[in-house]
Write a structure and sequence with these properties.
Layout lengths: L10 E8 L17 E8 L4 E6 L5 H8 L10 E3 L2 E2 L10 E4 L13 H5 L6 H10 L12 H13 L5 E5 L7 H18 L2 E5 L12 E6 L2 E7 L4 H9 L4 H11 L25 E10 L4 E10 L4 E5 L6 H8 L10 E3 L2 E2 L9 E4 L13 H5 L1 H4 L2 H10 L12 H13 L5 E5 L7 H18 L2 E5 L12 E6 L2 E7 L4 H8 L5 H16 L28 E4 L1
Parallel strand pairs: 3-8, 3-9, 6-7, 7-8, 13-18, 13-19, 16-17, 17-18
Antiparallel strand pairs: 1-2, 1-4, 4-5, 9-10, 11-12, 11-14, 11-21, 14-15, 19-20
Helix pairs in contact: 3-4, 11-12, 14-15
Length: 550
């Protein structure tokens, strides 16, 4: 790591203003509205800066400027006293992680081949264990979440003086997220590194950050040390649950016009009462070809109107279970049913909304969102409400927008038609607090008013207090807990004891106990035997041969 002078600010902006546009052609000449406006910041080396704000407030633009990705005036933005864009020597001291890899950029490299000589360094080995990465993984054969973890590993493999990180923990479970944040904390405390971190996820961050910057409509609305964030400390004193999240939600909400209160469910038919459970599995065991079982003897039953929170560490089997219930994987008849019908062998597609895989740009012929939805859906109160919550412009062209915007469009598309069952895998990671609260409130209304059933897998808990009606806890492919939330005695005790983040604390205790119980076992260090580790991605259904049993 290049040496830096401690009396020089690690980050300094003076009147920083940035607009997109101004190019040499007619199509790029017009300037956008300001994305950053008169931003004045200064942070000393060793600071850990939390950057927060609504979608579009200016967070990612600021980080890309700090990362040297956008040209600004030399005096407006400096890193260690040097112009952020114009001084190329900064690349030896600076790591920017804000744009994610795409599958088709790779020629089937393994993680080990990607890292090369860096693989054996103690630093890289530590990060491998934090993010639970198998170095035999092929970059273009793994999931988007696994690929992001591999990219993060590659970015952090080399020690730097400043790390500029834009929403890097969305694909990490609670254990890995805390491990990575602790790694970065040690970098700042022991090596004087500066961390600038933009996120919408506030689990664990109140005691991690040294400073907070809140953006509102391209301007800095608040910048101070965490010790001086009086509103947060007052919420803690009053015993407010999830105080940092609650404060950020309060601030973010001011940036939005009040969403019109419309009865979006008016005229929507209620879900008929099924003869049996809405979701049911019976001794379900499932394995990919050549691998050990991902699910073992999974049995549960949930009825009409349930909101099921599915929790577990990375690799617990949540996504595999979700894809089976969604009819995406072939299983023997009688192992899993939705609305009394077999998930794979019977036709249930019209009754299920499955959201577990995200669109890719190349799948689209440059459709506008309104063309994709159709006129009838676009003009419905349901779609108008969801478009407002998700901040989607119906005139957006799908393959011209960012990954985060595309995910929001996909979420709008799949929620635009009412269904009896919603199967959702980490759908809120790209949403700001306003959109996250709006979608979860919408889904709660679907359950309470229409009797729909929601099956929701997530690693993010700072917005879920009081939302779920039931809990399903998985560990290593097995069900450890399946019950109504009111029967979770440990959670009730945490609430009664005044824990500020009771759900997060509950899950954290379970996950850490699970890892401690493994006594140092590191399954990600065992070479994968499944075809997915060695061949390019064969599609959603996975390898050609799977195994399931009762």
């Amino acid at each position: 790591m290049a040496s830096t002078t401690q009396d020089v600010a690690a980050v300094q902006t003076d009147g920083l203003t940035f607009r997109y546009g101004g190019g040499a052609t007619m199509s790029t000449r017009a300037f956008s509205e300001p994305k950053l406006l008169d931003v004045n910041l200064q942070f000393a080396p060793g600071s850990r800066v939390l950057v927060a704000g609504a979608n579009g407030a200016g967070k990612s633009t600021l980080l890309s400027v700090l990362g040297g990705q956008k040209m600004v005036d030399r005096q407006q933005c400096k890193i260690f006293g040097r112009p952020a864009f114009h001084d190329s020597t900064l690349n030896a001291d600076r790591m920017y992680c804000g744009d994610w890899w795409r599958t088709d950029f790779f020629f089937n490299l393994s993680v080990a081949e990607l890292l090369g000589d860096r693989l054996e360094s103690p630093r890289v080995q530590q990060l491998i264990d934090i993010m639970q990465i198998d170095v035999t993984w092929r970059i273009n054969a793994i999931s988007d979440g696994q690929r992001r973890r591999c990219q993060l590993l590659e970015c952090l493999a080399q020690e730097r003086s400043i790390y500029i990180l834009d929403e890097i923990t969305t694909d990490l479970d609670l254990f890995a997220r805390e491990g990575l944040l602790e790694f970065l904390r040690r970098e700042s405390l022991e090596k004087g590194a500066t961390i600038v971190y933009a996120t919408h996820i506030f689990d664990y961050l109140a005691h991690w950050a040294t400073h907070v910057v809140f953006f509102s409509q391209a301007k800095v609305a608040r910048c101070c040390a965490m010790s001086e964030l009086s509103e947060y400390h007052e919420m803690v004193r009053q015993g407010v649950q999830c105080p940092l999240y609650s404060l950020m939600r309060q601030w973010v909400s001011k940036d939005y016009d009040h969403v019109m209160e419309v009865d979006v469910l008016a005229g929507t038919a209620p879900v008929p009462e099924p003869a049996g459970p809405t979701l049911e599995t019976k001794n379900l065991t499932y394995a990919y070809a050549g691998g050990s079982p991902q699910l073992r003897n999974v049995s549960f039953a949930f009825g009409r109107g349930a909101r099921i929170l599915v929790i577990g560490a990375n690799g617990a089997g949540k996504s595999t279970l979700l894809s089976i219930l969604g009819g995406k994987r072939m299983i023997r008849r009688g192992l899993a049913e939705v609305l009394g019908r077999d998930c794979f062998n019977d036709s249930v597609g019209n009754d299920i909304m499955y959201c577990g895989d995200w669109w890719r740009t190349k799948f689209f012929m440059n459709l506008r969102l309104c063309e994709l939805l159709g006129e009838d859906r676009c003009t419905s109160a349901r779609v108008q409400h969801l478009a407002g919550v998700l901040q989607c412009n119906l005139d957006w062209k799908i393959n011209e927008i960012s990954d985060g915007q595309r995910r929001r469009c996909q979420l709008l598309d799949i929620l635009s038609v009412p269904r009896p069952v919603y199967l959702m895998d980490e759908i809120t990671s790209d949403l700001d607090l306003f959109a996250r609260e709006g979608i979860l409130s919408f889904l709660k209304a679907e359950c309470d008013v229409r009797g729909a059933t929601v099956f929701y897998c997530t690693h993010i808990f700072d917005h879920l207090e009081g939302w779920a009606s039931h809990m399903l806890r998985l560990s290593k492919g097995e069900v450890l807990r399946c019950c109504p939330m009111e029967d979770v005695a440990e959670y009730k005790q945490l609430v009664a004891g005044g824990d500020p983040t009771p759900l997060y604390s509950l899950v954290r205790g379970w996950v850490y106990a699970e890892y401690d119980g493994d006594q140092g076992a590191k399954p990600w260090r065992k070479s994968a035997k499944s075809m997915d580790a060695r061949l390019p991605n064969l599609g959603l259904a996975g390898p050609m041969v799977m195994h399931c049993s009762g």
